[in-house]
Specification:
Elements: E1 2-5, E2 10-13, E3 21-26, H1 37-55, E4 59-66, H2 82-90, H3 94-111, E5 119-122, H4 127-139, E6 143-145, E7 149-152, H5 168-176, E8 191-196, E9 215-217, H6 219-231, E10 235-241, H7 245-260, E11 265-271, E12 274-276, E13 280-281, H8 292-297, H9 302-310, E14 318-319, H10 322-345, H11 355-366, H12 371-388, H13 394-404, H14 408-417, H15 422-436, H16 440-452, E15 455-460, E16 463-468
Parallel strand pairs: 3-4, 3-10, 4-5, 10-11, 12-14
Antiparallel strand pairs: 1-2, 6-7, 7-8, 8-9, 12-13, 15-16
Helix pairs in contact: 2-3, 4-6, 4-7, 6-7, 9-10, 10-14, 11-12, 15-16
The chain binds adenosine monophosphate (AMP) and zinc ion (ZN).
Zinc ion binds near residues 27, 223 and 248.
């Protein structure tokens, strides 16, 4: 399986640390607001990754954090804690909004067919692990303390900028333009491991005791501490959005590798942004954003949104428009129609001709999760199944759906169980007889009668199929 590794900037053959098991760490949401559809795109990507690995027979362990403390309004340690700002906006306690938005997040991901991670870990419940990691960095000489915070000295870690592909000089010069909150920081690009509850953070609501006095952890240390706690010091795959490359993941690498002397992550995978209008990134903290609920309010099935995401490769920008969502929704309905009629036909025997589609689907999955190609293979399979009038292709679609996650077997089972009311069933039989006798007037009359009962008919060479109108 080839995966694009952001660290080497090329597709690499995926080789896990142990042959059958794969550990994945996925940067989770900061729970100060609803997730927007851009955030959700990134989690759909992570889900496709884990499903694809399971499809290849790996036993996947996915860990996802919940950021409920320490993520400041700028990733570069300036501004205030997003959680505190969120609580103030809503006039509720931080703990209240943290739990509320975490719950909403998983409601959304469930609706999108995203498999729940094997382990979900909240930052606020792993403070001891973070303190321990900061202490290790301190002892090894990578960290230093000022009266405001404990920082990581980026000049002590060779290759600090290897993920971003920037030079350290560039990084330090860029960081110099940032607002300086602490005059005692050694280098502008140094980042906080621990913030003290003093000065601008004197009234920070969430705070804990530490060897450096009361305070709270920085955002980056949480992911290093929890990833290593649950997956070990070297992990197979780490995922996130591309905005994580220059700061968050750069810092995760520095702190983790400085502490252990080992490679932290073997494969770094990043999803491109969802953009709107003339290419603006959808953002949770600014302006208007679309949530899954806003799509549902307009009558869209969440899985139609998932289907849209599958049609754009995860490393390309997804330019969201209502037209593209309409097209995806129509495509998804067509797909479900095929599944329903195939399931009702009851023909489950798979023929030899489908094997070629299995092979091509697998190739697409293995080529850096090429879902647009996988979806195209799926449509070709359906086209050939229709042409051959061979509904045995359904079992292959169910197999593909282990990766696609579009709830196809649910739709199929529903359709198979959905028996027509006996009087409608006998009307269809009567109509078939009328057609055989070329009594078109009676056949049309029955078609109208069924339409009034909410059933539409489609005459195919192999017989008539019916569908309920919603
Ligand atoms: P946050 O909850 O803000 O920490 O972000 C959650 C995830 O969404 C992170 O992996 C971000 O990289 C990702 N993300 C943020 N904005 C977008 C966007 N416009 N499109 C896709 N992913 C995004
Ligand atoms: Zn993270």
């Amino acid at each position: 399986m080839l995966l694009y590794n952001s660290l080497s900037r090329r597709k690499e053959e995926f080789i896990p640390i142990s042959p059958e098991k794969v550990g994945i760490y996925t940067c989770g949401p900061t729970v100060y607001n609803y997730a927007h559809i851009g955030n959700l795109r990134t989690y759909i990507f992570a889900d496709v990754l884990r499903r694809s690995l399971s499809y290849q027979g790996y036993n996947v362990k996915q860990v996802m954090n919940i950021t409920d403390v320490g993520h400041l309004t700028s990733d570069e340690d300036t501004g205030e804690d997003k959680m505190e700002a969120g609580a103030r906006r809503e006039g509720r306690s931080i703990w209240d909004i943290a739990r509320f938005y975490e719950e909403k997040f998983f409601e959304d991901t469930d609706a999108l067919g995203i498999t729940r991670p094997d382990i979900v870990c909240r930052a606020t419940e792993h403070i001891p692990q973070m303190i321990e990691l900061v202490e290790r960095l301190y002892e090894l000489g990578y960290a230093y303390e000022t009266d405001q915070a404990v920082y990581f000295d980026v000049t002590k870690f060779p290759d600090y900028t290897k993920l971003a592909g920037q030079s350290l000089e560039e990084k330090i010069i860029a960081a110099r333009d940032e607002v300086k909150e602490d005059p005692n920081k050694r280098n502008a690009a140094d980042f906080a491991l621990w913030f003290k509850a003093v000065g601008r953070f004197q009234n920070h609501i969430m705070q804990w005791d530490s060897p450096w006095g009361r305070g709270f952890p920085g955002w980056h240390i949480e992911c290093s501490a929890m990833a290593m706690h649950y997956l070990g010091e070297t992990i197979d795959i780490h995922t996130g959005g591309i905005d994580h490359i220059p700061v968050h993941h750069t810092n995760e690498i520095a702190q983790s590798e400085a502490a252990t002397g080992k490679t932290f992550v073997r494969y770094w995978l990043h999803a491109e942004f969802l953009v709107v209008g003339s290419g603006e990134k959808m953002a949770k903290s600014e302006g208007e954003f679309l949530t899954l609920q806003s799509l549902k309010n307009r009558g869209y099935d969440p899985l139609a949104y998932r289907f849209l995401c599958l049609q754009v490769h995860y490393r390309s920008k997804l330019n969201f428009t209502w037209e593209s969502l309409d097209a995806a929704a129509a495509g998804y309905r067509r797909l479900l129609d095929f599944v329903s009629s195939a399931a009702r036909s009851g023909d489950g025997t798979e023929k030899e001709w489908v094997q070629d589609y299995r092979r091509r689907f697998n190739e697409a999955v293995n080529d850096d999760l090429n879902m647009p190609r996988a979806v195209a293979v799926m449509w070709e399979l359906i086209k050939e199944a229709n042409a051959r009038e061979d509904m045995g292709a359904l079992s292959v679609l169910y197999d593909f759906d282990r990766v696609l996650g579009l709830s196809l077997s649910r739709a199929g089972e529903q359709a198979a169980q959905d028996r027509l009311e006996p009087h409608l069933e006998s009307l269809i039989k009567e109509r078939e007889k009328a057609r055989a006798e070329k009594n078109w007037a009676r056949a049309d009359e029955i078609r109208k009668q069924l339409a009034e009962a909410g059933i539409i008919l489609e005459d195919r060479p192999d017989g008539t199929i019916w569908k309920r109108i919603n």
